Amino acid sequence: MSFHPNDVIRRGRAASIIVCGVLVFLLSAFFRAQVIRNQDYTLKSEENRLRQIPTPAPRGKIMDRNNKPIAENVVGYSVALLAQNEDTLRSTLTRLRGTIQLTNNQFEDAIKRYRRDATRPTVIVQDASFDVISALEEHRMDFPSLIVQSAPKRIYPTGEAVGGFVGFVGEINGDELAGMAGSGYKAGQLIGKQGLEKQYESVLRGREGIQFVEVDAKNRIVPNARAREAVTPQEGPVLYTNIDLDLQEYIHQLFADTLAGAVVAMVPQTGEVLALYSSPGIDPNRFVGGVSHSYYDSLTNDPRHPLYNKALQGKYPPGSTFKLATSVIALEDSLIDFNTHMPQTCNGYYYLGNRPWKCWRKEGHGSLDLYGAIAQSCDVYFYQLGQRITLSRFVAGGVGLGFDRKTGIDLPEEKRPDFPSSYPDYFNQKYGAKGWTSGEKELNLAIGQGENAQTVLNMARFYSALATDGTEPTPMIRRGQPKLTRQVRLTPDRIALLRKAMMGVVREGGTAAAAAIKGVNVAGKTGTAQTLRYSSGGKPLYYAWFAGMAPAEAPKVVVVVMVPDVTFEGATSAGLATKIIAHYLHTQVTNTIENTG
Amino acid sequence: MATTRRINVDLQLVVTAAILSLYGLAVVFSAGHTDVRTVATNAYRAQAVWLVVAILAAFAVSRASVRLIEWMTVPAYTFTVILLLALLVGLGSGGGTARSTAGWLTIAGHRLGQPAEFAKLTVVLMLARVLSQNRVAPKSMIELWKPIAVCGVPLLLIVAQGDLGTSIVFVGIFFSMLFWAGVSWQLLVLLASPVISLILGFDTVIWGAWFLALVGLVLWYKPFLGEALFVISASVMMGIVGPMVWEHMPMYRQNRLRVFLDPTVDPRGSGYHVIQSQTAIGSGGWLGRGYLQGPQKRLAFLPEQYTDFIFSVVGEELGFIGVTAALALFLFLFLRVIRISERANDSFSSLVAFGLLASWFTHVFENVGMTVGAMPITGIPLPFFSYGGSFMLACWLAIGVLARISSEGRGGKLGPLKV
Lengths: 597, 419
Prior knowledge:
The complex is a heterodimer. By secondary structure, chain A is α+β, with helices and mostly antiparallel strands. Chain A folds into 2 domains: 51-240, Penicillin-binding protein 2a (Domain 2); 245-283 and 308-596, Beta-lactamase (3-Layer(aba) Sandwich). Chain A contains 19 helices and 18 strands. In chain A, the strands form 6 sheets. In chain A, strands 2, 3, 4, 5 and 9 form a 5-stranded mixed β-sheet that branches. Chain A has a 5-stranded antiparallel β-sheet with strand order 11-10-18-17-16, with helices on both faces. In chain A, strands 1-8 form a two-stranded antiparallel sheet. In chain A, helix 11 (323-332) packs parallel to helix 13 and helix 13 (379-389) crosses helix 16. Chain A is elongated, with a radius of gyration of 35 Å. The termini of chain A are far apart. Chain B is mainly α. Chain B has one domain (11-408). Chain B is built from 15 helices and 3 strands. Chain B has a 3-stranded antiparallel β-sheet. In chain B, a hairpin with a 2-residue loop joins strand 2 and strand 3 (110-113). The N and C termini of chain B lie close together (8 Å). Chains A and B meet through helix 1 and helix 2 of A and helix 6, helix 11, helix 12, helix 13 and helix 14 of B.
């Protein structure tokens, strides 16, 4: 052993240097972590312990033109869970079943939500009842990862009455999430699913708030934690609409439970949609946050198709209501005038070649001018008018009047009506170059049958143009600047003459004389189109239309009513329409009197 | 020969150890302060009791002369080897405790202690005894067979228990004491070469460079032919065996090593400890989050916060200042022990002192290094800080021995022995 003092001191010095060197090395590692990278690690530590709990924003209310609520929010409660992984989620859910009722669907939905976004609290019960909340509060200590928070719940106070346009809200699904990428939507959030709620989603949604809670390594929430300050949610702005809720409810009550059909009422000068109704409808309240199977089944099993919007999506042959379009096309091209008589008088039939085409009135109408032909809806007159127009001009005229396009209403569900878009390509494509003759098409189209199926809304748009100087508005549900376009190329006084002709419909000798109302002149046109279906009693079923406006001299409202699959005719629909008109004008008058004292 | 009942207490040594222990106790107390109560909550009480016991034991040991200690070395060493054997045979309880690799001596269900902690002490004593018998420093490997055996037997027994961390301490003790005994660094490198080859064997280029350097060293140092052949062939073998050993390693151990290079490869598994520990330390900043306040510890993100990762609590709550203070105390203690080794009366005492230093030093280097990600994770405790009775007792027994050596050495009151 070499323990000479010099050797020992040399080795001692070497040992001291090594010890110092290692400790300086360690210290520098700490300096790097604690001083240089302090901010990174502080952030990491905060991420570890703080969980962001989104606090849902109340959606903007939807108001009618008199500021009555169409959609608003009430206080509800949601139950969510902070899960560390799927296994703990499953076990906690299983334990929760000892305290509250959880259906298998809720169980599986929660797992799905967790898989979609594990960083957010997993919602278990979207809209929890008071019983559930109090049961959970009682067992708060047993479920430290549970979050019970108030979540505004959407309600539609008038329910089924507004089901035709308001839509509803529900949890965002995978497709929507993918489609909305970049707009900040997250799994578990609510989104407008149909109607106004969908159309104005970006306006109504508001801004989600954030609440911070402190959690430990097992995701248990630490009570009274020293967490960060919360960001309060911002309610979405109010959506003001043109809807007249009073009128809408009146219509709903008119249709009662038995009658199916659709109504559109609008202000012709501006396109303000006063009412848009489809019967039977859906109760949007029952769709909020997920529709129950039983309710949904009852809707799909109903033969009258409540899920199918008859004002926006349903396309029906317009029948005689289209005779006004035929008249406009002929007048635009100066093919006739109001007192033009057709060469062949009506004796109940019109022969194309050797095939007889019936007029709806077997006895015939005799010789009529345009006024009479409109008032009495003489088919024979319009057969001849159709031939005079010729098919190519008819197609061009119909396209010019917008019968092959959507109206552009601010609702996502609107369907494009069916109408030949071009001549002769449309027919060649449909039937082959030699599979059709124009004569038959001319006759059919002239009386609103054949290749023509219109939405109720599109007919309302067209009649609005007849109610003004030929300028027609885009139907709008949201309150705002009207969008106007000129469609009918006739002078205002000629359009006034058309209205005069339509006044004949609701007058002695007209097709809807019984629908007249006191004190107001109604102008309109009935339509009775064949469905080619029969009632159980063997009677033919019709689409019963009425398109009208009042007061005829300076219309304030246009109403189109369509009732499908009924044995009665357009005249009955006219009765409904004039009631709606009377109700609207009456309340308007009373309102005016009230307002002016 | 003057024998006095009172020894001259090495105040610098004892006071430093006491401050470290109290600092450690305070941190154990804080480590128990979590939002949800755990076994750590009341650990500080047991630790305080152990500290008192340990100090009393240290006092008792310091009464025994170095000669008595030297006389007891062989039986003590034999006894610990028997204990380690007994653990292997079945008196141990491994599973179900705080650490899966804990080698506890258990009799009738009572956990009596961890013999490995005391084995460190007795191996130091035994090595000192064996090395101090040589008149000149060993110059060849064959001369080192005794120290290799002394260290190797308990090391193998502990490795057989699966406790890799403690075995690293034995390696540290072994090389440090050979160094202190005057063995040349060249021989130490040759001795270590198989292990280094094993570690470097994962990369052919690095291993090749190392191998060339080793050949150069052999040519320069000119050991016996047999030894030269042994060193070279061992290195070649390890270079081949290394990757095979790697493949046969249990997954958790592989991951520990992998994670050392990049903790993010397995953030929820093997990397979790390092990431959480680094986060705790890094978020401490200059002054820390405040005593008892550290969120990582409080919310249980920090694992083993009162045992192996206790230094992370120091980093999180007391910041860089607290870390510097702790490391400065350790540095002071180490330098003091080096001084004691230098001044020791005889080669046995000197070697014992240096061996104890080596043991602590390895612990601190490895434990503190792993909390900040500078060393791979092995489960060894931090002297005077980590919760654990056996270890606290072992540390203070060492202080007692050192105090005695100090007082018998030059500058001590008992003065150098006059033989």
